[in-house]
Write a structure and sequence with these properties.
The relative contact order is 0.23. The protein contains 5 helices and 6 strands; from the N terminus they run αβαβαβαββαβ. The longest helix is centred in the N-terminal third of the chain and has 11 residues. With about 160 residues, it is of the alpha/beta class. Strands 2-1-6-3-4-5 form a 6-stranded parallel β-sheet, sandwiched between helices.
């Protein structure tokens, strides 16, 4: 797993969260179940459930709709060029995770992993609530839950 992801998800469990990935259902189920992360996601949408894979914005638009939030209220965490393009085309703010690429053009913030202190201050600036009673943003995550170690862009 990308360092800090479980702590991050636990710390922000008061936010609406979705997983949106081009990965196949079997891979998604394996990662979520083996890492014990399924409980964090209200909506899980994978590449087998959409007609248009990333970089098309369909997957992110559908998770926003399923969460009942406007796209502009979503923050996407992405590690791929296609994923960043998809999130931006959906009208969402995108945080780049540099596990695959050092630079991800168009992102609002780039972090090495979920322990980066800049992430929490940036989320606060975006309106991330301190309590569940004030849900200002939704979190949409792709599968940069897993450390990719600068692989070819596959998503």
């Amino acid at each position: 797993l990308v360092p800090g992801v479980q702590d991050f998800l636990t710390r922000h469990r008061n936010l609406r969260m979705a997983l949106a990935t081009n990965a196949e259902t079997a891979n998604v189920n394996f990662v979520l179940d083996s890492a014990g992360l399924r409980e964090f996601f209200e909506v899980i949408l994978d590449g087998e459930q959409v007609s248009n894979p990333k970089p098309h914005p369909e997957i992110y638009l559908r998770v926003a709709d399923a969460l009942g939030v406007a796209s502009c209220e979503c923050v996407v965490f992405e590690d791929s060029y296609a994923g960043v393009e998809s999130g931006l085309a959906a009208g969402m703010r995108v945080v780049g995770i540099s596990t695959t690429h050092d630079e991800l053009p168009g992102v609002s913030l780039t972090i090495a992993d979920f322990r980066d202190p800049a992430l929490e201050s940036w989320l606060s600036e975006q309106g991330a609530p301190e309590t569940a009673a004030n849900q200002g943003i939704a979190i949409c995550v792709t599968l940069p839950l897993i450390q990719n170690d600068k692989r070819e862009d596959k998503e």
